[in-house]
Amino acid sequence: MIDYDLKKIRAVIFDVDGVLSASTINLHPSGEPMRTVNIKDGYAIQLAVKQGLHIAIMTGATVDSIRIRYERLGVKDVFTACSVKIKTYDKFLSDNGLTDEEVIFVGDDIPDYEVMSRSGCPCCPSDACPDIKAISRYISQAVGGHGVGRDIIEQVLRAQGKWLADKKAFGW
Fold it and tell me: Global pTM?
């Protein structure tokens, strides 16, 4: 269980590679990375959006497939090509009237370290690098790409009384 007051969480920000997709990526013959997605993560993300939890994606990747996937789930803030994530994070907080304490950031590797050090509740998958595990308030039992998003979102929505709370839960 996440050791944090999840009732005050207003936003969850996810890295993609190694968090919402597996750490190993197949390459298309064109050289395009072909990421995996987890259906249960997708269900939880779209439900969280419907329930008013602000979900954002923050990744260094530049492919359109990431934007398409998460926008179809209702995510409005999909930030790609984030070479220095802390800049995007600061702007995201400012634009949405959020404080660090109201944010969960889920990352797995060094590019996420700076933001995770600031967010109120840094979380990571079980196969995150040691430096990220050391600063995380919660380490999911799931490895990246295999339900980390579902694990964290479900805990937040349950704590806020929004998991299976109404008919929004029973559809896409």
Answer: 0.96
